[in-house]
Amino acid sequence: MTNILGLNAFGFNTASAILVDGQCVFAVEEERLVRDKRTRRFPVQGIRQGLAHAGLSFEDVDTVAIAWNPAVNLEVHAAAQSARPRYLPEMFYSVPSHLMTLGHKDTEVVGARQSIDFADGREIAIDYVNHHTAHAGSFFVSEFDEAAILTVDAFGEKNCISFAHGTGNRLETLWTQDFPHALGSFYSAMTDYCGFAPQNDEWKLMGASSYGDDARFYKELRALFRLDDERGFALDIERFNFHQFHRPGFYNNGLVGTIGIPPNGRDVPLTQEYYDLAASAQRVAEEVYLHLLRQLHAQTKLKNVVIAGGVALNCVANGKVVADTPFENLFVPPVPDDSGGSLGAACYVHCHVNGGDRNYVMRSNYLGPGFNDAEIAEALRKYKVRHVHLDNPAVTAAGLIQEGNIIGWFQGRLEFGDRALGNRSILADPRVPEMKDRVNDTIKYREPFRPFAPAMLAEAVDDWFEGASPTPFMEKAFTIREARRAAIPAVTHVDGTGRLQTVSADQNPLFHDLISAFERATGVPIVLNTSFNLKGEPIVCTPEDAIRTFYSCGLDALIVGNFLIQKEADTAS
Fold it and tell me: At the fourth CATH level, which superfamily is domain 368-566?
């Protein structure tokens, strides 16, 4: 038995994943466990809980796979840091730093390894995987035996884009583009310009874009990019600061002069001109994104494509890939961002480095901690919460939603990734026009333009959406059929689209039962789904998290496992 621990150990949203003989048995973002959103903490809690879940101790780990390769950062020798370690264990850095000065200057570093040997004969190998290779490792959890792979983000070591080819258990990097010509950083700069937090609130820019005129600032923003017919693009970086890490902000006065309106203040409500700017930024980003995909197809001539990296969280752009490029099939994992690098790095080491068989397909992201009824009941007793036991929580939930209640839904294992897919969700009736504003105002405490996802029965998708494909991870947005929009106004975005989640009985039988019960009662095979958390907080993980969040907002009811909690005075324990 081979046990691999994958880590996104540094930067935003640290995470851990555990592979046992190539099967992912546990994966979680550290923020969910330590309750510090987008934490940079080393994922100690995730490692401990994952090992316990798998019945392993740290001594059972064969390899630790890190989704970053610091050897790339040693390609230029830093004498001041290497000559005199401040702390003796820095020799782990200093020795390779010096040795690399003796090698060929034009040789690119593609991997690095350390090992720690113990007196009892144990050895733990530490494999450092190039960041974009870790992203590309998402191929190994797809259904494709062969695929083209695009990774695109802000930066990793020195790359910000890569083209790769995956076949069986092998990966081949075809081409990379170096930072600072980064699509992800451009999008973060526009996020910053509109008054949102860069490297955190990019989905707000995407949501706001549907309210604007995408032609208003298109020429100015498009002129910042020079698309190459064969090799990516060049970004006019003179107008940006993101590549100068010692400078404040993501842009400079050059960009302000180009756009022609002052930057919006942080957390200041958007006026129409900033909605227009968001729309133009989204349009340009999509154009560059699709350009890269067409280039990738021209090189590979393949029908399947895998996309990963932070930019792959842009579900609006993802929804256009199959329609607007030659690719026929698309896989975007539920964790395309850096947290998913933990799983990608582990899969790369298992498959490509160790030659292991591919025997795991990511059909769901329910990979985090789970809690049984006894554990839930203990939490309810501990906090003296009045509750009732349910024989059929799915039917009860559907009835509460039909009656106009907004409910917290806590079931099974925690989702791995930014999207709550029916295990840690807030659910409501999509038929009620004011429901979107109710959830935004009284529960999520967030901007009114933010949309909510339609979670729907997979078998009914063609009746409600145009050109939609199975979208189990809420990773693509599609156009809702015009004749259906009036029936589901709370999940129909202003542009007529919806960030779709298709729910199958195989993927999540209990959530499928809930939506089926709602359809039997209403004729609508859809519920409004959003993540179970408040603004600024991670998605709930434990029953205690769910109870606290329930009593901190305007939720009407909470179903946690087989227990119902309501805020009315007539519930019985």
Answer: Carbamoyltransferase, C-terminal domain (3.90.870.20)
